[in-house]
Design goal:
heterodimer, A: 41% helix, B: 554 residues, Beta-Lactamase, 5 domains, five-stranded antiparallel β-sheet, 19 strands, 48% helix
């Protein structure tokens, strides 16, 4: 079962994403503190959904650190944000893709499915 | 007679013979003297009137000379009798020579001058002298003359020569000269007056000019902006005081060096736009930063307009650079606020939308389609809310030129189909679609999609429920056009041009029944403009509208 790590400072969003992804058959791990993901030494996720603006942390910094780390470099990161510049930010920080808030559930699941299937191949 | 001879004594006869011998001898001497050229003339008393007989051969040269000279020449005796005069003198008096010769000179002197002339002649016997008098000339016209008196030796003793110079022409010339002088003086006076007036005018004008220059200087130096001028070739030739205050440099250091104070990020844009303005004669406009005396950059809005002469040639450029730093920073703050506000608004909307979708999914799973439908409706409204938030943010960015475009190449028909598919899920209008051969477009796919969505949304919004919406594309090889036609309200002719303006909403009695901020078409127009395309509308009130845009094909 593919594991997805979700980092967002809004607990509602964490709940919603978690529910949606679990319904679609994924295993999820949520954190309101994105730094947690940097502490994961083993049991690494297959995909990371990362909010950009979080209280205390900046999703962009986390993404950069993930890309700098040998262990986490290849984990696809998908930015989640209501920021209208999300497209450019994703490119700039080498994120695999982005999902603009608010999002359509179908769109989210389709995107996750595509990325994970690409990763498997 | 015979008796007379007889009556003479011998002694008498001898005496008579002696006398005759003497006379003969004298005559011989005279003849001899004449022969030798020692005698020029004789004065012979004839009927008690002395007559001068001159000897032609000896004095011909002088005679001709005297006769030909324009001055009158007169010789008088001690008694004042005219012994000789030339023709000129007779002509002056308008009398024949015969009426002049042998007359007393005094006879020709008018009464008023007689005494003076007598005295003059009296003096002249002792020393030569001159005087001006008036002689009666032709028709008794007075002639001004100059008398030059000289004594001369002649055979009979001392005579006086008088040369009479007609001063009429000289007097006339003098008179003329006097008149000319008077005229000259008059002209000089007029000239002086004119000069004075001119000087006064020049003084006044100079004063006015000075005032006007001072006024301009006062204005230019106190206007709260940097003011400059440039020659037609674009070289800056004047800056007001503010420029030197702003840069903290003096004239020598910063004259003509405007470009060097522009932020490096905007130098190229400045050079290109300025060159373009100079070559095309069109106004120049640029928002850029300028370095101040503390080496800090402040945002400025620079504008320049060409000034043309009557022949429409540019003679100068007038420029102004206004410090907009505070406004720019305020705008940045506003942008930041809008950005945060938009983020903060979207966050709860994201949660609501998420929960609604989850609920709908659950109801669908449970087979409760009624509840699922209700939640679909809620979702449509959430999307509208999201789109309104997005519009507000977009407008704010367009205003500041900060709406970012993510350029990519994409298939146009694919995008149109995608949008129609999305729209069909929520619209109550059947969509009829007629797509031409597809093409590849270069641009921001999402934003062009936003324009298509906006067209379809509008078509639906202003159409009666159930009315069809036609979508058609036309491929013109170098460009592609998209038409969205509705059979709705239509737009009055006078409002059609304004429909792409910000905050514009079609004015109708039912105005309030149509939702929207009036931003959609404005944003659409801006997006199309940025893609070097064109946007338009054809509409007839009561019959419907056709909105279209045309984009270049790469």
């Amino acid at each position: 079962m593919k594991k997805i790590f979700i980092a967002d400072d809004d607990p509602d969003i964490l709940e919603i994403l978690s529910l949606m992804l679990r319904m679609a058959g994924y295993q999820t791990q949520t954190s309101s503190n994105a730094n947690d993901i940097l502490k994961l030494a083993d049991n690494l996720p297959d995909l990371i959904l990362l909010d950009i603006w979080m209280s205390g942390t900046d999703g962009r910094d986390i993404c950069r650190q993930l890309k700098e780390n040998e262990l986490t470099r290849n984990i696809p990161v998908v930015f989640l944000s209501a920021n209208s510049r999300i497209n450019e930010i994703s490119k700039e920080y080498n994120a695999r893709d982005f999902i603009a808030k608010p999002f359509e559930m179908d769109f989210l699941l389709k995107k996750v499915r595509t990325i994970l299937s690409e990763a498997t191949v | 007679m015979r008796g007379m001879y007889i009556e003479k004594t011998y002694g008498e006869l001898v005496t008579q013979i002696e006398q005759l011998k003497l006379l003969l001898s004298e005559a011989q001497e005279t003849i001899e003297a004449i022969r030798r050229g020692e005698v020029d003339a004789f004065i012979v008393k004839n009927n008690n009137v002395p007559e001068v007989y001159t000897l032609k051969s000896s004095d011909q040269t002088y005679r001709i000379f005297i006769e030909k000279m324009t001055e009158g020449a007169v010789t008088i005796s001690r008694e004042g009798i005219i012994l000789y005069c030339n023709t000129s003198f007779a002509n002056m008096l308008d009398l024949p020579l015969t009426k002049v010769l042998g007359q007393s000179f005094e006879n020709f002197i008018p009464d008023g001058y007689k005494d003076a002339v007598s005295r003059l002649i009296a003096i002249a016997w002792a020393e030569e002298c001159k005087a001006e008098i008036i002689l009666p000339g032709k028709n008794k016209n007075p002639i001004p003359v100059l008398l030059s008196l000289n004594t001369m030796e002649i055979a009979g003793g001392l005579a006086m020569s008088i040369i009479i110079t007609d001063l009429s022409s000289q007097k006339n010339a003098q008179e003329e000269l006097k008149q000319k002088n008077a005229q000259l003086e008059q002209a000089q006076l007029i000239t002086k007056k004119m000069n004075d007036e001119l000087e006064q005018t020049v003084r006044e004008r100079t004063n006015e000019l000075y005032k006007s220059r001072e006024h301009f200087k006062f204005l230019a130096d106190n206007i709260p902006a940097i003011v400059w001028t440039a020659s037609p070739d674009g070289e800056m030739d004047y800056f007001n005081k503010r420029w030197y205050d702003f840069t903290g440099k003096d004239y020598v250091q910063v004259h003509k060096e405007f470009r060097l104070f522009i932020h490096p990020d905007e130098t190229d844009a400045y050079q290109n736009l300025w060159n373009k303005a100079i070559s095309t004669g069109t106004p120049f406009e640029l928002v850029h930063r300028l370095k101040d005396g503390n080496l800090e950059y402040r945002w400025h809005f620079s504008q320049a307009l060409p000034f043309r002469n009557d022949d429409n040639d540019i003679v100068a450029w007038f420029g102004i650079s206004t410090d907009i730093d505070e406004q720019k920073r305020a705008l940045e703050k506003k942008d930041e606020f809008i950005s945060i506000a938009s983020h903060e608004l979207k966050t709860p909307v994201t949660s609501i939308k998420g929960y609604v979708q989850l609920l709908r999914y659950n109801f669908q799973q449970e087979g409760n389609s009624h509840a699922a439908d209700l939640l679909t409706k809620a979702d449509v409204q959430i999307n509208k809310l999201t789109s309104l938030i997005g519009d507000l943010l977009d407008v704010s960015k367009i205003e500041n030129g900060q709406l970012l475009y993510h350029e990519e190449k994409f298939d146009f028909n694919e995008l149109v189909k995608e949008i129609i598919e999305e729209t069909e899920r929520v619209t109550k209008h059947p969509i009829k679609c007629e797509l031409a051969a597809t093409c590849t477009i270069s641009g921001d796919r999402n934003k062009i999609g936003q324009v298509i969505t906006n067209f379809i949304d509008n078509a639906g919004k202003y159409s009666p429920t159930g009315a069809v919406i036609n979508i058609k594309t036309v491929n013109r090889k170098t460009s592609i056009s998209l038409y969205v036609q509705d059979y709705g309200l239509g737009i009055p002719k006078d409002q059609q041009a304004k429909i792409f303006e910000r905050f514009f909403r079609v004015n109708s009695e039912k105005e309030n029944t149509y939702a929207g901020l009036g931003l959609g078409l404005y944003i659409s127009a801006e997006i199309i403009k940025r893609h070097k395309g064109s946007i338009g509308v054809e509409s007839e009130q009561g019959k419907g509208s056709i909105f279209n845009f045309e984009l270049p094909i790469i």
